[in-house]
Amino acid sequence: MFVTNMIREPLIFEISGKGKRGFPLPKLDMSVKDDLLKSIPSRKDIDGFPEVSEVEVVRHFTRLSQTNYCIDLGFYPLGSCTMKYNPKINEKLASKKEFLLSHPNAPEKLTQGSLGILKIAEDLLKKITGMDAFTLQPAAGAQGEFVGMLMIRAFLEERGNPRKVVLIPDSAHGTNPSSAHICGYQIQEIKSNEKGAVDVADLAEHMTEDVAALMVTNPNTLGVFETDIKKITDIVHSKGGLVYMDGANMNALIGICKPGDMGVDVIHLNLHKTFSTPHGGGGPGAGPVGVVKELEPHLPLPVIEEKDGILRLNDNRPKSVGRVRSFNGNFLVIVKALAYMLSLGPAGLKEIAEIAVLNSNYLRKSLEMDFDLKYPTPTLHECVFSDKFQKRNGVTNIDIAKRLIDYGLHPPTMSFPLIVQGALMIEPTETETKKEMDRFIDAMKNIAQEAKKNPELLKNAPHVSYVRRLDETSAARNPVLRWRETPSEK
Amino acid sequence: MSYISLSEKDKKDMLSRIGISSIQELFRSIPEDLKIEKSLDVPDPLTEPELVRWMDGIARQNSCHEFLSFLGGGAYSHVIPSVVDYLSSRGEFISPYTPYQPEVSQGTLQIIFEFQTLICQLTGMDIANASLYDGASGAAEAVLMANRLKSKPKILVAKSVHPQYREVIQTYTRNLNLTVEEIEFSNRGEVDLENLDEKLDSETSAVVTQSPNFFGIIENLDKISALAHERQALSIVVVAEPVSLGLLEAPGKLGADIVTGEGQSFGLPLSYGGPYLGFMGCCKEFVRQFPGRIAGETKDVDGKRGFVVTLSTREQFIRRERATSNICTNQAWCALRATIFLELLGKQGIKDLAVQNLQKANYALDQVARVDGVKPRFQGVCFNEFVLEFEKPWAEIEGPLLEKGVIGGLSVAEAYPELENCALLCVTESHTKEEIDRLVGLLKEVCS
């Protein structure tokens, strides 16, 4: 059975058959105690748990895989997510048995290779960003933000006052305010100016001695470089605040400039964006955090140190913000990111930014007559159009996105940043071929025409996908969040 | 190496459409004084064969895999069927992102929905999310959630909860006007119910227990939950070794309000600590305060079943600082591996797996307990880990075992000064009788 839009792959629970097994275990090879099972609160069989054969499992997941769009298949211009190609060799290197069987609780002398990977990755990230120290602990960008803000708080607390407020531009990722909030801060929003950049006057007005930090994304979510970044960091520093940079968009800057030179005190990177580790359908990622040396004592636990030629994990650091997760970060993700850095070298890393920015500007230029560009400011790695022109015919950004699916393309990021109504945020990355981008441009131009001539075609899109437009409202209103055995099936 | 697909002609054509003559012009918005003059100070590029050689070299500095290991303590060595590696390495699973466009992400979404169902079935909870980072941050998220639900300033955490999980709870709560107090353990290695009873008061939001706990002991979850509920506190149960759920009564049936834990045992290799898999389930009444992404069932315009990310108004990209968590990227691919693992093992397989862990560990414990100079530290029933107390300092045991190619266990004295000369040993289905007997034989030599 090949998946088409006429059929549905059932849930595994629906193809379950009593007594079927997919993976028998070897026989127990030792004498057992009968009374042991009676001495514990044991359960009966797990109701509804699947019973299927190995073949059924393989077919189930293979069929489901065919309903997914992915970067290996084609253009994936999800703005702010940096959907670049994931080199296959890096997957292979990360599945070496020496890494897979490395136990996080093993004595350090048995895991010097793993520790070496972490140490070298830290050193390279320092050189790329110009920061003085790094932690590889955070599991994702948002946890990196949390760690970074905790360090800022610890630094300020040590100087007598953690302060109350964190300033965040209105174009920022939602994770920024959320992360600052769990560090105990109130959020104040900084307006964007007519260029889509931080309004420096508004920042200066908000910047008081109550403000702990500014969280700034650079280039920001419009793809605009904060040209006044030095002025911005000076304003924050002049009142004793610190500058946190969301490095989600580092793909635009790598090899071109270093956040450490901009007056940034703390930055997180997303290894699953800039450093090519696969997104895995939503994770795992890794969100390393770099800091200036004044903040180094506050790094989360543990910290890798070299002593007498042996690498060790030090968790005895009184000024640390503490542990933020178990063990040593998303280690295999870091292996892949390190392999990526080593394979590209200085010129290859710079080429990432150059081609990512070239591709984005090529798309922007090619589409700017057909779609509204709210901010005409020059952009780097991504650009944000809106549905303003198409709205005249009652067509929204969602309709445009769904129609792109009919053209066999993944839609851009939708409705973000919040400062652009009906946003379509496009980030091609350096991965894209010109042919694939031209295919996207042609599709978008066609859609712009369709919006005028036949808006219904767009409002009912997609037409030929495995599922058609899904009712998200009723999904939220009457949540069905798990399968349940219905009495008739019993 | 380069992964760029543009030819020089492509670049020229593109620049000409943009109306400029060089790529450098595109970076004019960056002030000149910020631009790097030289190139980055990183090593010269490696081709694939060179990179493989380099990685081989550094990997050889790891020797952990050559040892017979009895390490557990939050990371467990279990069988991983080859089907898990095979299916999870498909590009359609590795290379998409979060299913923001459900019409082209049904595979990912249906798998999340199946994962949520499996977690509900295992934990006995009504709902589950798509994943969290790991067990430790899951425990912290559960505490934050309980605090939002109860708005009371105190959290009680059993000292028998994994030490790293307790540290992470401390880190996450430090700036939120919450106090975290710890509950002692008894000589059986279980939560000291009297101590819990004393410390539980009307100011307590939640009690956090782990079962099997850090010492491998199965806790009296029903009693603990009943005590918590008597004082209007929530019962949070942490499961660091979820294989136990194949055999032990579901925490949800024993009064747990939130169950969270570490899913590494379900098809994820040790990998020096990550990526692992946080999971969480709770009662359906708490859904509005539940952290993390959730997939839900719905229909498309033709009335056919499909799946979407739902209840997103809890999430940071909509609710910003009022979100139930800051999590965005999660551990989706790890959840995929767990889903394949659990579906393949199935109803009988997950039970057999749990029974073998229980039986083998208890066989090992019986054998080791007969060795002079060694005694079980606790009297409670263990699942697949146990704490041994040695007459000699642990270093004098660990060193000679390592020389014989055996990692004997994990010292616990750093986290529990009161457990001097004690180590935590883990035995799973992956250990054979010969291997266990070999450990016992070596301990006889080393301990005497």
How would the blueprint of this fold be written?
The complex is a heterodimer of chains A (490) and B (448).
Chain A: H1 34-38, H2 54-65, H3 88-93, H4 97-100, H5 112-129, E1 133-135, H6 141-158, E2 165-169, H7 175-182, E3 186-190, H8 200-206, E4 211-217, H9 229-238, E5 242-246, E6 266-268, E7 289-291, E8 303-307, E9 310-314, H10 331-367, E10 383-386, H11 388-391, H12 397-406, E11 413-414, E12 423-426, H13 434-453, H14 455-459, H15 472-477
Helix pairs in contact in A: 5-10, 6-7, 10-13
Chain B: H1 8-18, H2 48-59, E1 68-69, H3 82-88, H4 91-94, H5 106-123, E2 127-128, H6 135-150, E3 154-158, H7 163-173, E4 179-183, H8 193-199, E5 204-210, H9 221-230, E6 234-239, E7 258-262, E8 278-282, E9 294-299, E10 305-310, H10 316-319, H11 332-369, E11 374-376, E12 385-390, H12 394-403, E13 406-407, E14 410-411, E15 422-426, H13 433-447
Parallel strand pairs in B: 1-13, 3-4, 3-5, 5-6, 6-7
Antiparallel strand pairs in B: 2-8, 7-8, 9-10, 11-12, 12-15, 14-15
Helix pairs in contact in B: 3-11, 5-11, 6-7, 11-13, 12-13
Main sheet specs of chain A: 7 strands, mixed
Beginning-to-end CA distance, first to last residue of chain A: 27 Å
CATH class of the largest domain in chain B: Alpha Beta
Query: Mean pLDDT of chain B, nearest integer?
Result: 97
Please give the domain count of chain B. 2
Oligomer: heterodimer
Strand coverage percent of chain A: 5-15%
The CATH topology annotation of the largest domain in chain A reads as Aspartate Aminotransferase, domain 2
Structural class of chain B: alpha/beta
> How much helix, percentage-wise, in residues of chain A?
25-40%
CATH superfamily of the largest domain in chain A: Type I PLP-dependent aspartate aminotransferase-like (Major domain)
| Tally of separate domains of chain A | 2
Largest sheet of chain B, in brief, is:
7 strands, mixed
Return the structural class of chain A: alpha/beta
Distance between the termini of chain B: 58 Å
Can you write the helix and strand succession of chain A as a string? HHHHHEHEHEHEHEEEEEHEHHEEHHH
- What is the C-alpha radius of gyration of chain B, as a whole number of Å? 25 Å
The share of residues in helices of chain B is: 25-40%
